[in-house]
């Protein structure tokens, strides 16, 4: 029993930050991401004795994480937002990398849940189409379709952002020109 406890502790320590990054990309909110990871890890710990650790627990945890995210999106409470979040716009950051990450997070927020999950798993986690299909519990064709639609939407949003910047007279570096 003590060996299982040590294995679980080592696994949680080794995978927590990676799972938190994935969860944040899925849901776009640090607090919700922490809740998703906590729930996924709790479900994994309950199932620990029957898991085949030779095949790896990572795929199991990723699938749990995505399933928890998708089921949370289906619940009405997911859409409830504090009023301040709808009104406040964050201050523009002077650092381009921070601004790009913020834009990507917002663009991902606009994708439907399954498209977002497919894009994050395929392109952030660098999973194969088959591995993504396994995590999402769908066919490879569905993963291709979800990824394609998600990327098309992200590209359109990028084009719209660039056109708006040109229209407003702002260069890529954030400098206004006359």
UniProtKB/TrEMBL annotation:
The molecular function terms in GO held by this entry are: DNA binding; sigma factor activity
Q: Which GO terms describe its biological process?
A: DNA-templated transcription initiation
| Region called Disordered, residue ranges | 157-178
Question: Which keywords does the record carry?
Answer: DNA-binding, Sigma factor, Transcription, Transcription regulation
Residue ranges occupied by any RNA polymerase sigma factor 70 region 4 type domain in the UniProt entry = 102-154
Please give the Pfam families that the UniProt record associates with this protein: Sigma70_r2, Sigma70_r4_2
Where does the RNA polymerase sigma-70 region domain lie? 12-78
Q: Which CDD domains match?
A: Sigma70_r4
Please give the family membership noted in the entry.
Belongs to the sigma-70 factor family. ECF subfamily.
Recorded hits in NCBIfam families, A to Z, give: SigE-fam_strep (TIGR02983), sigma70-ECF (TIGR02937)
Q: What is this protein called?
A: RNA polymerase sigma-70 factor, sigma-E family
